[in-house]
Each structure stands twice: as C-alpha cells, then as structure tokens.
Design brief:
The chain has about 400 residues and is an alpha/beta fold. It is built from 14 helices and eleven strands. Helices cover about 35% and strands about 15% of the residues. The strands form two sheets. Strands 1, 5, 6, 7, 8, 9, 10 and 11 form an eight-stranded mixed sheet that branches. Helix 8 runs antiparallel to helix 9, helix 9 packs antiparallel against helix 10 and helix 10 packs parallel to helix 11. The longest helix has 27 residues. The N and C termini lie far apart (about 50 Å).
Length: about 400
C-alpha cells in the first residue's frame, strides 16, 4: 500500500519538478557561503584552456590544434597570463576577465590518482571523493557528506543538484532535491494539481509543510518562465548553459537554504576534430565561460563575494594530438576556482616544465595536485572545518594550503 509520503512525492513528481515536499519546505536561512561544483563530463582538454605557449614542446606535440602565441593583434592567439601560460581566446570576456579581476585561480596538473582512463569510473571516483586506490564505497558522495556535516553543526542548509537524476556526488541516506533546468521541466506548476494537493491536506497536521513546498515550487516555476520569456526575446546572447547558470544563480541567491549546488556539463570528449581557436572545444569553452560569468552576474556583488565555484573534470587528455586532430584520454588537468573572495589572478599548486621527458607515461600531463587536497583547502576556508571534519568529507585526503582563499 502506498503511504502518505510516497503519495506526496509521486504527486509532486507529476507536476514536472519531481521534488520531495520535505526538502522544498526548508525555510530560508541567513546569509551563508555558497558553493557550486561544476563537473565537465567527457574530460575536457585543459591544455587548450590553459595554453603552455612558453614551452616549445607544446607546438611540436600539437601541430594542428595548438593556440598561437599571445599577440594582441591576433584574435585567435592565446591570452597571456604570465609564466609561459595563456588562456584560450574563447574565454576572453569571461574567465580571462575574472582572472584579471583576481576572482579566478587555476590549478594545473590536478586531478585524481585513478588511472583507468574510464569516464564512468573516474567520474565516480571524483564525485565520491574517496581514495581511488581502495574499493569505492557508493553509499555517499562528498557533497552529500559536506551537507550532512554542516547540518549537524546547526547550519540550516541543503544541497541542490541541477541534474535530472542524483549522481554519486549527492548520493546518501537522505534525500537531496534535484531539478533539471535544461528545458525538460514544466515552466509553470499545474494549477489543477496544486489545488488538489492543497485540498487534500487542508486542516491536517502536514498542511504547513505542503503549503511551503508548493509556494517554493511556484517561485521556481515563475523564475523558469521568466527565463524562457527572456530567451525568446533574444535580448541575451544565451547558450544553453548560460540560461541554466542564470537560473541556478537566481535559485541559490533567493533561497539561501540551497547553498551547496552541483551541475554537470557534457560534450567534452574530443577525439576527432577538436579544433584550435575555433571549433567544438572553443564553442564549449566559450559557452561554459559565459555561463559562469552570467552566474556571477546574476548572483550580484554581495552574494558573489560569499560564493565559490569549482570546475573539474574526470581526467585530462593526451598532450600530443592524435591522428584525427583530436586528443585521447589522459591524466592531469586544470581545475578552475572562481569567486568574489578567492585570492585569484594566479596559478596554484605544484608546477613543472613541460617537455617530452616530463610527460606522465610519455603521453599525459601528470597529477601533482590531488583534487581532494584542493577541495579540502577550499572547504576548510569556507566553512572552518577542522582536520577531523575534513576527513569525514574527503576521507584520507592530504589537506594542503594552495593559497586559493
């Protein structure tokens, strides 16, 4: 027999948002730090984002897909950021601007120690936040553990997964709400179903929770509807992710209880015709950069000051281009750390000279900066977590000071 909670969950799922009443009924909390983790699924080519133009081997290894050396007169050239590195011109108005404003840190030679080069396994490793040398425990992901820990400490917050399903990063014993903002949800709540739900619980002990859940859902629906109308006017140069990013920002800004967010972006597996200053990868980088810039803009100055965005991917790609003018599955990559209060405008972590002799297994950039160490540094600064607490979220991780926050 279906119990009351199962019925409510199914009823709300029918409205298109698929959210549990209990999680939506959480009241707003006072201002608190916001964290958004962005997973680039498919392993993006960090050597095309963070271009090592100061190392001649880069041009020898990539005769067709390398970015030109910095030249203000050449719009297709890398944008110099010093120390022999530059940024892809596709992020000139987004990431490069943030970097110059000291609101972006890049961590090259980062990633996990997983060597499977399997998309799924490597993504699971990073989302679970565990030591990849041990058997993986799928009972909980690191963002779920973070939320659970913060709630134990009295913080009134929850996580929000901007995905169609809960992925390993938010897996746990309790429910984390999820919502897909990429046009697969109903823009407005169904008035008939809402009225039925209100009537069903009128005068009962659970009426307050149901009413709060409906009210929040209606607010989100109105927000989505506005986004759709804005896009239809063509006022904004919006890509799919830019629209999603603005919606995420509005939701996290107006509902501080949802202060820990996750979103994934696909389409980064570039084995064939990756392109250089133009092409598939350039388009993806441009869309991603504009989306994250819009996320910061939509949050507003005050909220952005208390927000940190972490962009990561399951692994990097081969440093040499392949015979199809693309790149294959590699190892080390570059993490992005963005925020209004990060100590930005720099590269962080251990670096190395890039040449044929220093490649990992003669093909990839190595991992010197474990992603869990980077995350641990960020979480300790954002939430004041001690060593024991960090070990709960990222068990066994070596916490180092990267000077990010």
């Amino acid at each position: 027999m279906m119990n009351r909670r199962q019925f409510i969950n199914q009823t709300l799922a029918m409205t298109g948002l698929g959210l549990s009443w209990k999680t939506w009924a959480i009241p707003n909390s006072s201002s608190s730090p916001r964290l958004l983790v962005v997973m680039l699924r498919g392993a993006y080519d960090g050597a095309s984002l963070l271009v090592p133009h100061g190392y001649p081997f880069y041009y020898a290894a990539r005769p067709n897909i390398a970015l030109a050396q910095p030249n203000p007169a050449n719009p297709d050239a890398a944008l110099d950021i010093g120390h022999g590195y530059g940024l892809h011109p596709a992020v000139a108005s987004s990431l490069h601007t943030m970097f110059q404003a000291q609101q972006a840190v890049l961590v090259p030679f980062s990633g996990s120690q997983d060597l499977s080069r399997s998309h799924f396994q490597s993504q699971d490793v990073m989302e679970l936040g565990q030591n990849s040398s041990h058997a993986l425990d799928y009972s909980s992901g690191f963002l779920y553990r973070l939320v659970a820990l913060l709630r134990q400490g009295g913080r009134n917050l929850n996580g929000m997964s901007f995905t169609s399903n809960i992925t390993p990063i938010f897996k746990g014993v309790a429910e984390i709400p999820n919502i897909n903002l990429q046009g697969q949800v109903n823009a407005m709540a169904d008035p008939r179903q809402t009225s039925m739900l209100e009537a069903l619980y009128q005068g009962q002990a659970m009426q307050m929770y149901v009413d709060e859940g409906i009210q929040t859902r209606q607010q989100v629906s109105a927000l989505l509807d506005k986004e759709m109308k804005d896009a239809s006017r063509g006022a904004a140069k919006a890509s799919g992710f830019e629209k999603v990013a603005r919606s995420m920002a509005a939701l996290m800004r107006d509902n501080p209880a949802y202060a820990v967010g996750f979103v994934d972006v696909g389409g980064w597996d570039t084995h064939v015709n990756q392109g250089a200053s133009n092409g598939v990868l350039a388009n993806n980088l441009g869309n991603l950069g504009r989306g994250l810039s819009s996320y910061a803009d939509e949050l507003g100055v005050d909220a952005w000051r208390n927000t940190t965005v972490v962009v990561m991917s399951e692994f990097g790609r081969t440093f040499r281009e392949n015979g199809n003018r693309g790149t294959d599955h590699g190892h080390g990559n570059t993490m992005w750390i963005l925020g209004g209060s990060v100590s930005g405008g720099k590269l962080a972590g251990e670096l190395m000279d890039i040449n044929e002799a220093t490649l990992f297994q003669q093909r990839d950039l190595p991992v010197f900066n474990d992603y869990r160490s980077v995350l641990g540094n960020i979480l300790s600064r954002m939430y004041g977590l001690n060593t024991r607490q960090l070990n709960e979220v990222l068990p066994g991780a070596l916490i180092k000071d990267f000077g990010i926050c």
